[in-house]
Amino acid sequence: MMINNNNLTDRLRGIIPPMVTPLEDRETIDVEGLERLIEHILAGSVSGLFILGTTGEAPGLSYKLRHEVIERTCLQVDQRVPVLVGITDTSFTESVKIAHHAADAGVDAVVLSAPYYFPAGQRELLSYVRNIAAELPLPLFLYNMPSHTKMTFGPKVVRRAMELPNVLGLKDSSGNMVYFHEMQQLKEEREDWMLLMGPEELLADAVLSGCDGGISGGANLCPRLYVDLYEAARDRDLVRTRELHRRVMEISTTIYAVGEPPSAFLKGLKCALSCLGICSDVMTEPFQRFMPSDRERIREHLVELGLLEGASL
Fold it and tell me: Is residue 22 part of a domain?
């Protein structure tokens, strides 16, 4: 029998920012920054909050810090929006443990990518999804992130995962629009199945094609912009969609383009939040925050984007 997940999936349609993790050092949360960031994001009328994902640097955090982020976030959010938690790990057991800790803290659903380091075949990946879904205390979203995991949730795996009532949908961060359209075709087979876009540069196209929303990193910085873009695309307001998409691309080609890839996106995002006085820009190692010269470039871009006054920090 299919479990009715419509209430949760209906609430989640829209923008679900993948929150950065504010840090003071490698083992200390920037607590005040975390509180300010959560309030800043929620003020943008987002549909949910996703913590401990890629943008949250989860693989670089100790389990102690992951647990603390879960607890503090749930306490601060206080059920105003659904909270999703990433449980991806190389260890099956540790993923399940994080999920149970999340459930105890009041989280609404968990998010899981393929376990990284040892690539698995598609049959093994399907078995993994079935086995872990059976042990989870919360609904599950799959997270397709082949650039980081070396694996893709192939169409056959996704179709079989859709038979599991506690697996609610898929976040696609592949950037592969052919794959994304294949997922859209599968979505027609299950009424409550959700499809969410990862790369914000593809958000407008995805929503215009029928996607349920986006997990957009830039919504840490400008949550209302991404909510407005989602709503304009959902409502087929093409003029407004084009204008808002242009503004999203301005962020992508400025804030995310400082420094060297592949960490430039996250460093730029954290640095921008720091320049705005929201939270610290300390990174998980081996990554390091921007040096003063790159920080000044981020500050200049924020001024150009109208997000910061021109006075020197």
Answer: yes
Residue 249 lies in a domain: no
Would you call 236 exposed, middle or buried from its count of C-beta atoms within 10 A (0-12, 13-18, 19+)? exposed
Q: Is residue 271 part of a domain?
A: no
Closest CA to 218 of 182, 181, 173, 265: 265
Q: Kindly state whether residue 237 falls inside one of the protein's structural domains.
A: no
The CATH number of the domain where 130 resides is what?
A: 3.20.20.70
What does the alpha-carbon distance between residue 198 and residue 45 come to, in Å, rounded to a whole number? 19
Give pTM, 2 decimals: 0.95
The per-residue pLDDT for range 53-101, each reduced to its tens digit, is 999 999 999 999 999 999 999 999 999 999 999 999 999 999 999 999 9
Range of the domain at 142: 6-223
Contacts of 124 (CB under 8 A, 6+ apart): none
The span from the CA of 248 to the CA of 227, in Å, is 11
**At which residue do the structure tokens 């199945």 appear?**
193
Q: In the chain, how many domains are there? A: 1
For the chain, which residues score pLDDT lower than 50? 1-4, 311-313
